[in-house]
User: Which sequence fits this backbone?
């Protein structure tokens, strides 16, 4: 083989390995238990996960690799019955003191009372951007689709296809946006009765243990992150380039209408309206359009 043929083959191989930067990850091939493995399990064909909380401990999984941008889907059936004091979490996070994080957390409640969906985002180590919602369905009766859509223009939290929150990229105006470090994906079920139930008012009723949350069809249609990679490299590595596509850079007017419906009817806390907390000095993104 001549040198040019070898170079050609090397080029083909590098193109093929770049193509794989868009991966479809599921529990069995891409996650591991980082906590409470003794009483939790991956079931079925690797597409079902059960997390358990009892007096011995909670439990959790995390993805083996990090991702930068993508659409991260999780179907969740929350702890039924008296779940007060339990928190089921599903989030993306990097590590270190300047870490980024995108959160979905589900705060349990006593039987018949509504769960709270708690959302937050950390940029460069700073959170304090909470928004909370009630749900328009019983999240313990069936699986529902909680998807985080993260691209260079914006982050969108979706529930069953309805956007509930948007955090847009206003980096050019000095507002940090998570786009420089990869994040791993985590799910966990834990005892947060010192925090979740109105500041610890209600304690977990252990007579209802074990508490079980079920997860299904985790998919990270996302760009692999194996260390510092530039955004353009990451995006151009993708065969479809879909997260930079204009249709993902802004919600359609139909989606905006859905989000307005959710926020008008089900939002129960918005940090941007908490004037007392910030002493009137509202975070800068609160003055920007977030849709
Ligand atoms: C879950 O919701 C996301 C965002 O709307 C959507 O792209 C995805 O197709 C949904 N998945 C399922 C299994 O319905
Ligand atoms: C539980 O239900 C009560 C009564 O409806 C509600 O005030 C509270 O916000 C709910 N959520 C939690 C986590 O306590
Ligand atoms: C974190 O962000 C909040 C809201 O934007 C702000 O009030 C606070 O000063 C920030 N804290 C730090 C340590 O930057």
Assistant:
């Amino acid at each position: 083989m001549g040198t040019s043929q070898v170079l050609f083959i090397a080029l083909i191989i590098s193109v093929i390995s770049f193509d794989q930067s868009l991966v479809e990850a599921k529990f069995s091939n891409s996650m591991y238990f980082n906590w409470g493995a003794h009483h939790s399990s991956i079931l079925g064909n690797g597409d079902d996960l059960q997390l358990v909380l009892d007096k011995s401990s909670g439990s959790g999984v995390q993805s083996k690799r990090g991702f930068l941008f993508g659409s991260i889907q999780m179907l969740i059936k929350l702890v039924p019955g008296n779940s007060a004091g339990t928190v089921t979490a599903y989030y993306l996070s990097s590590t270190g003191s300047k870490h980024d994080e995108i959160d979905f957390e589900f705060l349990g409640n006593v039987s018949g009372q509504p769960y709270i969906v708690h959302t937050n985002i950390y940029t460069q180590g700073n959170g304090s951007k909470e928004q909370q919602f009630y749900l328009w369905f019983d999240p313990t009766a069936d699986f529902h689709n909680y998807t985080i859509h993260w691209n260079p223009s914006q982050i969108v939290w979706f529930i069953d296809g309805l956007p509930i929150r948007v955090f847009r990229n206003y980096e050019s105006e000095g507002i940090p946006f998570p786009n420089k470090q990869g994040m791993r994906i985590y799910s966990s079920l834990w005892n947060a009765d010192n925090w979740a139930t109105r500041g610890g008012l209600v304690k977990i009723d252990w007579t209802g243990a074990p508490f079980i949350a079920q997860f299904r069809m985790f998919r990270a249609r996302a760009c692999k992150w194996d260390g510092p990679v530039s955004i353009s490299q990451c995006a151009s590595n993708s065969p479809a380039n879909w997260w930079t596509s204009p249709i993902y850079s802004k919600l359609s007017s139909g989606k905006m209408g859905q989000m307005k419906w959710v926020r008008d009817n089900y939002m129960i806390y918005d940090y941007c309206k908490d004037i007392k907390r910030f002493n009137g000095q509202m975070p800068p993104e609160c003055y920007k359009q977030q849709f």
Q: What stands out?
A: Residues 99 and 203 are 31 Å apart (CA to CA). The longest strand covers residues 211-225. Residues 71, 73, 145, 147, 158, 161, 217 surround 2-acetamido-2-deoxy-beta-D-glucopyranose (ligand 1) (CB under 6 Å). The longest helix spans residues 3-19.
